[in-house]
Design goal:
0% helix, disordered N terminus, three-stranded antiparallel beta sheet, mainly beta, single chain
């Protein structure tokens, strides 16, 4: 995933969450899955203009999206994952601890 590193895109830590928050790609309603891949069930869909708190990240299905092609999946809650290809982290690598 090729994204310019722009620390101004990184949001502040969400109040009380202890995890950094990042914006989801503008104009996209992103599927939230029960695990890190397209073989997991869709359990929710993020609204337009959403931001997410990334608790941890792990490898999963490779996805192409607005921020490149990656196999990194972001855990945004207990059993809630979105592809990092749709989250503007300002990096093409890990920005949070690895899950597990």
């Amino acid at each position: 995933m090729s994204v310019e590193n722009d620390s101004s895109q990184r949001e502040s830590v969400a109040a009380g969450s202890g995890f950094p928050t990042f914006p989801v790609a503008p104009g996209h309603r992103v599927n939230v899955r029960s695990g890190p891949g397209t073989n997991y069930s869709i359990i929710d869909t993020l609204p337009l203009g959403a931001t997410v708190s990334i608790r941890c990240q792990c490898d999963g299905t490779t996805i192409s999206g607005p921020y490149g092609t990656t196999n990194i999946w972001d855990c945004i809650g207990n059993g809630r994952f979105v592809s990092d290809a749709y989250v503007r982290t300002g990096s093409d690598g890990y920005v949070a601890t690895r899950c597990g």
